Amino acid sequence: MGNMFNFKSTFSGYSVDDLQKAKSFYRDMLGIPIREEQDMGFALLLEGGNQPFIYPKPAHQPATFTVLNFVVENIDTTIESLETKGISFIHYESENLPQDEKGVLRGLKEKMGPDIAWFEDPAGNVLSVLQEV
Which SUPFAM superfamilies does the record associate with it (predicted)? Predict the structure, then answer.
């Protein structure tokens, strides 16, 4: 590694346009514990110690890529569970992303990566659930 700079830990972050809506989505709909940081935003307290920081940004533009991936045991039961909470999955119109009727790109049976499906938070940030085995 050579001349790597020294750091104690890392965390990522991304913006939202409405902090209260985001808080309700992550805490109440997804059931993720959060830690509030005064008016600056909140951290998601995820399994494994990852704590992405979500902060408000007035001219928020959602990323055009996936900002957070949730690795799950069973993608189908996870999707069903999230759909009962009112979350809908993104269906991309792309030959490069052949998704089934649930919105899942089935990589496992083709031995081409995980099974993965995408959904958005209220600010339009793209999240995914994926099954690796």
Answer: Glyoxalase/Bleomycin resistance protein/Dihydroxybiphenyl dioxygenase
CA 102, 108, 112, 113 torsion-angle sign? positive
**Fold classification of 13-131 (topology level):** 2,3-Dihydroxybiphenyl 1,2-Dioxygenase; domain 1 (3.10.180)
Could you tell me the residue ranges of all domains in the chain? 13-131
pLDDT digits (tens, 9 = 90+) for 5-43: 877 888 899 999 999 999 999 999 999 999 999 879 999
> Is the C-alpha dihedral spanning 38, 16, 104, 115 positive or negative?
negative
Sheet bearing 53-56, strands edge to edge: 13-16, 53-56, 41-44, 34-37
Structure token pair of residue 67: 């900002």
